[in-house]
Amino acid sequence: MNYAVIFAGGTGTRMNTKTRPKQFLTLHGKEIIIYTLEHFENHPDIDGISVVCIAEWIDYLKTLLDRYRIKKVKWISPGGITGQKSIYNGLNAMRGDIADDSIVLIHDGVRPLIDEELISDNIRTAREKGCAVTVVPAVETVMLVDENEQIVESVDRNKCRVVRAPQSFIYQNLMDAHDKARAAGIDNMIDSATMMSEAGYTLYPVVGKPDNIKITTPSDFYTFRAIVEAEENSQIFG
Questions:
Q1: Three-class secondary structure of residue 167 per DSSP
Q2: pTM of the prediction?
Q3: pLDDT single digits (tens) 40-51
């Protein structure tokens, strides 16, 4: 079976919003987190969803799930101090409830511009190879800097990929990697792909679309709005 862990535990300091966390900002009256959740709710191969949310906003999230008839969310957990701890909370909430060989897709609550094909490709690759990481090709020059912030090397961008989400793994393998990291006192790995790579797993890319952005800043929100409105207009104008 296949499950999604949706990370919506951040406060969104770079968004500069004063009223609510970025995942609860609205576009056309609908919250960003709902745009994201609907992709997994509507996908026929997703069997359940675990959401990690800011503790103070869990009750509000529950009202949104009822309003938009999101039925697949089976676990809701409070966020941790770091992203790694938050994802662990979402995974740990499922422990004992799902099979060890289930596929789990780790995804950002503020990355709403995914589609059914990307979810399917992640599930298939993770099922066949054990690890699937969504990427897009690097389109600008990439250079390495040293500890003095001096450029030391230009990297062939044809060999570079920008890592995004979903990132998908076999549940027990990812759970074991988290348990080992926690036992070693490691609590702030940047993402699940990095954790699994450090644990010795080979990562396999799933190529996504460039517009699969994470809404972190005001300009990201404006980009999201423009893409949604363009898709809506295409229904009318073709």
A1: strand
A2: 0.92
A3: 999 999 999 999
